[in-house]
Design brief:
Strand 4 (114-118), helix 6 (134-150) and strand 5 form a beta-alpha-beta unit. This protein has a five-stranded parallel β-sheet, with helices on both faces. The chain contains seven helices and five strands, in the order βαβααβααβαβα. It has one domain: Rossmann fold. It is globular and about 45 Å long. The model has no long low-confidence stretch (mean pLDDT 91). It is an alpha/beta fold and 178 residues long.
Length: 178
C-alpha cells in the first residue's frame, strides 16, 4: 500500500488536485482541518484554530480517516506532519496525542517518503476556513517544508502551473516509482 501526501501553503491548490484525482478514480483522503473548521463554525465557533484542542481534533480525524481508507495507492490532502507545522505556526506546544501520532507514523512507515509539495500560486483567496494573508502563507509554507525535511521526507515540488500539468507531474512520479 502506498500513501502519498500532498502538502503546501494554504490556497496552493491542494484541494483542487485532490478532487481531480478523486474524479479520475483515485483513492483520496480529504483535509481534516478544513472539515473540522467548517464543523466548528457550524456550531458557532468562529475561529476554532485559536484553541490548542483544535490540533488534537484534527489529529483524531486524520488518524481515523487514514485507518479506514483502503486501496493500493492513496492520496492525502495533508497529514499529521502538516498538523505539527500548524501547531508550530500557531505557537502551540505539540500535544502528547500529536507526538504519539507522529511516532506511530514514523515507526510504521505509514506514508511514502516522497511528499508532493504543492507550491503556492502567488496569491491567496480567503474563505471562511482560510483566513490568512498571502504573506502568512509564505511563512506557513516554509514551516511545512522544514517539518517534512526534519522527519526525513523528500519534497517533490509541484510548481504553480495549470491543474492538469500538476496532476500529470504527480501521476508521472508515482507511476515511475511503482
Amino acid at each position: 500500500m502506498k500513501r502519498y501526501i500532498l502538502t503546501g501553503a494554504p490556497g496552493s491548490g491542494k484541494t483542487s488536485l485532490i478532487r481531480t484525482l478523486e474524479m479520475n478514480g483515485h483513492i483520496v483522503v480529504h483535509e481534516a482541518a478544513t472539515d473540522r473548521i467548517e464543523y466548528d463554525q457550524g456550531l458557532g465557533i468562529k475561529a476554532p484554530w485559536t484553541s490548542p484542542q483544535f490540533i488534537d481534533d484534527i489529529i483524531s480525524l486524520q488518524k481515523q480517516r487514514q485507518q479506514q481508507t483502503i486501496g493500493d495507492i492513496q492520496f492525502y490532502d495533508r497529514s499529521p506532519f502538516c498538523t505539527l507545522a500548524l501547531a508550530q505556526y500557531l505557537a502551540f506546544t505539540p500535544s502528547p496525542l500529536l507526538l504519539e501520532e507522529i511516532d506511530r507514523i514514523q515507526n510504521n512507515k505509514i506514508y511514502q517518503k516522497e511528499v508532493f509539495f504543492i507550491e503556492n500560486l502567488g496569491f491567496i483567496t480567503p474563505t471562511d476556513a482560510r483566513q490568512i494573508t498571502f504573506e502568512e502563507t509564505l511563512k506557513f509554507e516554509k514551516i511545512h517544508a522544514q517539518i517534512y525535511e526534519k522527519f526525513g521526507f523528500t519534497l517533490v515540488k509541484v510548481p504553480a502551473e495549470n491543474l492538469l500539468d500538476r496532476i500529470n507531474k504527480i501521476l508521472l512520479k508515482i507511476n515511475h516509482r511503482s
